[in-house]
Amino acid sequence: MDEKDEVKDEGVKEEPESTIIDENVVELETDDDDDDEYLSNQPRGKSRILRLFIVILMGIFVLFLIIFLSSYLFRAIKQYSYEEVENILKKAAVSYFKDNADSLPKNSGGVVEVDASTLAENGKMKELSSYTKSDSCTGSVQVENENDTYIYRPYLDCGDLYKTEFLYERIIKDNPPVTSGYGLYSKNGSYSFRGEVVNNYVKLDERIWRVVKIDSDNSVELVLERSVNYTSSWDDRYNQTVSSEFGINDYENSRVKEFLDKSYLVENIHDSELLVSLDVKEHLTSFDLCVGKRDLTTESVDNRIECSKQFKGQKVGLLTLSDYLNASTDSNCKGPSTKSCKNYNYLVNKANFWLMTGSSSDTYSVFMVRNNGDVDLKKAYSVFSVRPVIRLDSRTIYESGTGIPEDPYIIK
User: Fold this and answer.
1) Angle (CA) 340 342 348, round 5°
2) Distance (Å, whole) CA 354 – CA 209
3) Nearest to 85 by CA among 167, 168, 163
4) Degrees to nearest 5, angle at CA 65 with 61 and 69
5) Which pTM was predicted?
């Protein structure tokens, strides 16, 4: 080799084999790396989704578990209202006497009582303390035979916390007896409301009644605040004594009594007006109507004359003359001829309405109250409004109300 060739060879530098870059090879290697990364990421993504799904399922399970346990614990520690406990007692007693029918009172007016412990022992309810969360409560149910219909009245006593209260007890509690002015007056073991503004409103169904008196047996006498739709006479029969159809003033055989009996016995009366519902009828008690007659001049306001003759065992009637007169607190009110009896008298209601008392001076006249409050005598064949009178049993239970017009007493 000559020197020129050697020099030429020295001027050329060859790249080592390892540094030679093939563009096609580089591109292929890049693609392979992406595939590897994609393949490696696939299992991790699925795993992540699976884990999330499991977490969600566990969360749902825990949520349902919490709801279930909360519901169970709520039932276990539920605090029953006193009214609910009374209803439990009543239902338990109904079931108990279904199994022990021989223990029910046989005669109308009869009453038997079963206590909560007996009901629990017979499996009709749990121990009373499990409902009240207190060992201080006692309970019982009284069952009364009312013409072969059994009326169940629960009674719960939890001391200062709660006590089932009878209506007559609540009325007396809200209206402590007075000796003057408006209010509740006490005399010979009974009570009567007197005055123009008294808190004696009671709501039965959709009707408003007024408390007239609480009798010595603790039954509560009520008169309808507004008259019923009555378009007939007190009585229109032919009167042989006067040879006329003036009517006869004996309440026991009068047309008005027929109407009142019908209004009580059936569910609707004229124009489908309802006197009392079947639920309210359960609370009504029989009482004796004072049907004695008197004249216009006799001075008496205490039912002494009217009650000299009684019509036994009735469920509905009318106010006597003395009932109306006694409701006035005017000291000048001495008898039916005294016009001041309409003063300070809650029974005046701007309606002409019949009383139950007939005149002793003839056989056809009956006392009535004019829309201005005056008392008058009218022939029995005349047509005036009727305000029925009923009595609630002494065991009628108070539910709510204060006796004022906006918040009348409500019974259970």
Assistant:
1) 175
2) 17
3) 163
4) 175
5) 0.76
pLDDT in tens, 142-195: 998 887 889 899 999 999 889 999 999 999 999 999 999 999 999 999 999 999
Window from 9-23, 170-184, 243-257 with minimum mean pLDDT: 9-23
Q: State how far the Cα of 17 lies from the Cα of 218, in Å rounded to an integer.
A: 125
Q: What are the structure tokens assigned to 408, written together? A: 């009348």
Q: Which amino acid is at 46?
A: K
- The answer to whether residue 268 scores a pLDDT higher than 70 is no
The first and second tokens of residue 155, run together, are 């009674």
Rounded CA separation 223/209 (Å): 5
Whether 239 and 363 have beta carbons less than 8 Å apart is answered as: yes
Contact 229, 362 (CB under 8 A): no
Q: Read off the pLDDT of residues 88-105 as tens digits, 9 standing for 90 and up.
A: 999 999 999 999 999 999
pLDDT at 218 exceeding the cut of 90 = yes
Residue 335, both tokens: 């008898």
Q: What is the DSSP string of 149-197?
A: EEEEEEEEE-TTS-B--BHHHHHHHHS---SSSSEEEEETTEEEEEBSS
